[in-house]
Amino acid sequence: MLQFIKDLPKHVVGIHAIGEVTKDDVDKVLIPKIDELVKRQDEINYLLILETDVQNWSTGAWLYDIKMGIRNFTKWNKIAVVSDQKGVQWFTEVFHFFVPGKSKGFSLNNLDEAVKWVSAND
User: Fold this and answer.
1) Which of 16, 18, 41, 62 is the S-S candidate for 3 at Cβ 3.0 to 4.6 Å?
2) Going by C-beta distance under 8 Å and a sequence separation of 6 or more, which residues neighbour residue 39?
3) What confidence score (pLDDT) does residue 54 get?
4) Higher pLDDT, 114 or 61
5) pLDDT single digits (tens) 80-93
6) Measured between alpha carbons, how far apart are the two ends of the chain, in Å?
């Protein structure tokens, strides 16, 4: 399930992933918030709190997520992924080689630091 995080600055979209994540979750929660942000400011600052195993994302969810990422390829400014899965943190750190903007991985106990980083205007 994907849940929108409401307590963030207006220039940041925050999503909390728990349990099973489906194509419907991506389509109804993530994509509308990203589209709204791009329309409003033409760049994306994105915080993902991943409290589920990446294997809990359905194939449809991954495909929709990738499609959304490609559609907004030039709009990515900052991506912060918060997870205790070391592979996810590592992938987030090297992700900046594949997309414009900055990406950084954080552990769950560093959530406040992640929020500050993704919210900061560099």
Assistant:
1) 16
2) none
3) 74
4) 114
5) 999 887 666 556 66
6) 32
Return the closest-CA partner of residue 21 out of 3, 35, 41, 34: 3
Q: Which residue, chain included where needed, has tokens 């400014």?
A: 77
Are 2 and 17 within 8 A, CB to CB?
yes
Residue tagged 């992640």 (tokens): 114
* SS3 per-residue string spanning the chain: CEEEECCCCCCCEEEEEECCECHHHHHHHHHHHHHHHHHHHCCEEEEEEEECCHHHECHHHHHHHHHHHHHCHHHEEEEEEECCCHHHHHHHHHHCCCCCCEEEEECHHHHHHHHHHHHCCC
Quick check: 5 and 15 in contact, CB under 8 A? yes
- Residue-wise pLDDT for 8-36, tens only, equals 999 999 999 999 999 899 999 999 999 99
Give the integer Cα–Cα distance in Å for 29 and 33.
7
Q: Looking up tokens 């205007």, which residue turns up?
A: 121
Amino acid found at 30: L
Q: What is the mean pLDDT of the chain?
A: 86
